[in-house]
């Protein structure tokens, strides 16, 4: 169900991670994404998985809520795995055989390296989503806005609309769970009227989505208009003349987070140097 997707939702708690400076958390997530792409072998994922596990434990967010975020990209993970499984064309690729019959048909073939690449890419995508999900689960949309605006503050000197960009990103994140709940309600309403979204070929299923997309678009525009009216009624005029109710300050938690990220980066670099070919 769409309501089970937790990406973009905030889980209220009083934890070590929740109390960290949002600017540091954003930078740590960016570093985390870079780390994922620096890894060259399965053993390289070990320090990153340990770092992620400790972060989830310190955040006091239910593990199920974190892993439910993978549902949103499950199709992408399967698609990437299939591409790597059947279309790997490396020079060292050797087609696997079952009972003497090669697993090859037309342009499709299953190789040992293809299986390894499929598993590697799937794990990389899952870790990417899990890491970003922890950020949204432990940081309120308001704190995300403040953090993004503070990090992009130097761009104000070239007349870049930093505040407006941060506000747009925050609203977009906040609307993800809202639109998912709205989609779930529309689907249930259409099913109660006899709509069938699960049977038939792919073209029939796509056609069946039309009664969902139109009400969803109407609802999204209505919510956007209501939000704009609410901001106008409160005399919102952008960043001009605005002050901060909450001033962001870094503490010992942020230093510990940066130190842990440095340790993970060091471990990944050492693994890439000394164990580059270990699966």
Encode the helix/strand succession as letters: HHHHEEEEHHHHHH
Number of strands: 4
Strand order of the largest sheet: 1-2
Q: Beta fraction of the residues?
A: under 5%
Indicate how many domains the architecture comprises: 1
Give the overall pLDDT as a whole number: 82
Distance between the termini: 35 Å
Poorly predicted residue ranges: none
How many helices? The count is 10
The global form is flat
Task: Give me the secondary-structure category.
Answer: mainly alpha
Gyration radius, in Å: 23 Å
Roughly how much helix do the residues carry, as a percent range?
55-70%
Major sheet characteristics: 2 strands, antiparallel
Secondary structure elements and their pairing?
Elements: H1 22-38, H2 45-59, H3 63-67, H4 74-86, E1 97-98, E2 101-102, E3 104-105, E4 108-109, H5 112-138, H6 141-151, H7 162-192, H8 202-208, H9 210-233, H10 252-274
Antiparallel strand pairs: 1-2, 3-4
Structural key phrases:
single chain, 279 residues, mainly alpha, two-stranded antiparallel sheet, 4 strands
């Amino acid at each position: 169900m769409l309501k089970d997707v937790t990406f973009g939702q905030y889980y209220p708690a009083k934890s070590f991670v929740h109390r960290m400076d949002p600017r540091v958390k954003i930078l740590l997530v960016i570093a985390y994404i870079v780390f994922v792409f620096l890894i060259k072998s399965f053993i390289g994922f070990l320090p990153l998985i340990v770092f992620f596990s400790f972060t989830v434990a310190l955040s006091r967010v239910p593990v199920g809520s974190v892993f439910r975020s993978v549902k949103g990209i499950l199709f992408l993970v399967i698609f990437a795995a299939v591409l790597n499984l059947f279309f790997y064309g490396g020079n060292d690729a050797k087609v696997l055989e079952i009972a003497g019959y090669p697993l090859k048909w037309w342009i499709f073939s299953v190789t040992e390296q293809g299986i390894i690449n499929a598993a590697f890419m799937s794990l990389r995508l899952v870790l990417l989503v899990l890491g970003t999900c922890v950020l949204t689960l432990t940081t309120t949309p308001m704190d995300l806005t403040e953090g993004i605006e503070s990090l992009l503050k130097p761009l104000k000197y070239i007349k870049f609309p930093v505040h407006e960009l941060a506000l747009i990103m925050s609203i977009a994140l906040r609307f993800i769970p809202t639109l998912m709940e709205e989609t779930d309600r529309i689907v249930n309403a259409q099913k109660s009227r006899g709509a069938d979204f699960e049977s038939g070929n792919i073209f029939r299923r796509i056609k069946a989505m039309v009664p969902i997309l139109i009400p969803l678009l109407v609802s999204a525009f209505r919510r956007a208009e209501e939000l704009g009216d609410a901001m106008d009624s409160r005399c919102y005029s952008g960043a001009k003349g605005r002050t901060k109710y909450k001033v962001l300050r870094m503490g010992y938690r942020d230093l510990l987070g940066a130190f842990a990220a440095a340790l993970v980066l060091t471990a990944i670099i050492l693994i890439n140097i000394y164990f580059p070919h270990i699966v």
